[in-house]
Amino acid sequence: MRKNGYQTIVIVGLTTDHCISTTTRMAANLGFKPYLISDATATFGRMGDKGKYYSPEEIHEINLVSLNHEFATVMDTATLMGIIESVI
C-alpha cells in the first residue's frame, strides 16, 4: 500500500472484537489512517468467564468506542459515502 501511496484504509467485516480490532490498531500503528465503518462490521455474542452473556451489540459498541479517535475514525456507511461524493 505504501508503494502505491495509499494512506487511508476503510475497514469492514467480521469480527469487531478480533479481526477488525487487530487490523484497525495495526493500521494506525503502521501510520495509516483507518476509517472503521460501524454498520459494515459486526461480531457475535459471547459468554464471559463468570457466566454473564454479552450480546453482539454490546461487544460491537464497546469495541467501536475503544477504537474511535484513538486508532480510527468510526463512521457509518452513509457518512463515508458523503465523504467520497464530496471528493469526486
TrEMBL record:
It comes from the Bacteria. SUPFAM superfamilies: Isochorismatase-like hydrolases (SSF52499). Gene3D superfamilies: Isochorismatase-like. Keywords: Hydrolase. Transmembrane segments: none annotated. GO terms for molecular function: hydrolase activity. Residues 2-78 form the Isochorismatase-like domain. Pfam families: Isochorismatase. Belongs to the isochorismatase family. This is Isochorismatase-like domain-containing protein. It comes from Sulfoacidibacillus ferrooxidans.
